Amino acid sequence: MLGLQGDFREHVEALHKLGVETLIVKLPEHLDLVDALIVPGGESTTMGYIMKNMGMEEVFVERIRDGLPVFATCAGVVLLAKRITNYEQEKLGVLDVTVERNAYGRQVESFETYVEIPAIGKDPYRAIFIRAPRIVEVGKGVEVIAYHDGDPVLVKERKILACTFHPELTDDLRIHRYFLEMVKA
Questions:
Q1: Active-site residue numbers?
Q2: pTM given for the model
Q3: What are phi and psi of 154, to 5 degrees?
């Protein structure tokens, strides 16, 4: 669990409910101790700045390119994206998507909706969007797993799962379970 900033504690709680041991990654050398990593929602510019100043950025990108499974939510998607349309900031460029930051509006315009995600089951998933990014373009190797109003909201590329909403804020563990199945594979 990347624990530099953001709502990583909620992800840890979800993983504990699934019986998964977690480590809060705060230093570059912690990346050598994990089998997979979650990049939480929060403030992508702050996370990118901290990673760069700590010398974690290069190690992180190298581990992802070597096959480290990663699950990114909300701001984590912005941090991993190759392209950002409406803001110039640090990014890792490991996920072949173009994103628009805070695309659904300000904090007060946050919303909940139900999203169909056949890969995790037939029941709709309650998706919580808080200052969420919008994925406006996906590369050839990116699989779209779920849409909301025509926009991709859950995508997968190699061993990266990226979600523009906050599954850690619900009691529904299906997306975390889906990521764990990716890790096992």
A1: 74, 166, 168
A2: 0.94
A3: -145, 115
